[in-house]
């Protein structure tokens, strides 16, 4: 059966017609990746998402398979190494949706990065991330840096680092991974919302009651194991399972602005620091330049995060500081997008200081012989 909306009814009948080894809740890149991993190991896999696939965080990123250079500043050495290796795997398996993108890292007097620290940092990054020889960092003089990007602020410019990130289409990448999972036998259905979990007499989770958001009809999916890969909604599912204990999530919002190249004719992707010591990307793509991202705590509905006036001002100010000749103003912003990051709460830390590490949390309902 072809994975297509044309066969949606058949997919739904298949989901409710048998017991699966694994039911995955969430159709973003995490859920898709888990589905592919499980299906390729011979497990029977069901996956549902209450929205469209990749509708949440997985379509609202900076459109990079980010190597995590800034995590070196936080001494997240293991994470940089892991991200670099995983990025290479993504590129190897999906070169049609992933491509190398040379990134310019300008260095200014009084900025976050000095020439020596940048040189060492990028060298360590190349080593940890397993960067291929032809894509290893190059250090540039101030003149060479301006040649790469003439719009950069000239005052105090000391030079630049030149290194490789990987550009992608985040939503398309998610769909490609999901397609590969389906090719290995997984069944995936969008607009299928988990309303509640199902338990046996011992309190072990055995599946989920699901509502078809298009037809309004309920159905059940039975499974030996249930994986909560819902991103910003992870704690909501945990709460319904009475397992929201110990560590919890903290959501932060990231916003990107889109400007026409006629106004912001950037010719080189740039990764630059802001006045508050954060890092922001400015990337030319298909006649536009997009710039982001912000990082602020977010406490409202994660389905439709919105750009605020302060978000827009923050990015515009960052643009005008690093690219003063552009003279960006509010009316120059053509569009924007906002996404929500599900991070593990670390009390007392600012949004950009919270680690981006992954963890697996296992609830008591995942084990047999549990008594309420």
Automatic annotation (TrEMBL):
Its cofactor is FAD. It comes from the Bacteria. One of its GO terms (cellular component) is glycerol-3-phosphate dehydrogenase (FAD) complex. One of its GO terms (biological process) is glycerol-3-phosphate catabolic process. InterPro entries: FAD-dep_OxRdtase, FAD/NAD-bd_sf, G3P_DH_FAD-dep. PROSITE patterns: FAD_G3PDH_1. It catalyses: a quinone + sn-glycerol 3-phosphate = dihydroxyacetone phosphate + a quinol. Residues 21-343 form the FAD dependent oxidoreductase domain. Transmembrane segments: none annotated. Its EC number is 1.1.5.3. One of its GO terms (molecular function) is glycerol-3-phosphate dehydrogenase (quinone) activity. It holds the Pfam family DAO. It is an enzyme of class 1 (oxidoreductase). Belongs to the FAD-dependent glycerol-3-phosphate dehydrogenase family. This is Glycerol-3-phosphate dehydrogenase. It comes from Paenibacillus pini JCM 16418. The lineage of its organism: Bacteria, Bacillati, Bacillota, Bacilli, Bacillales.
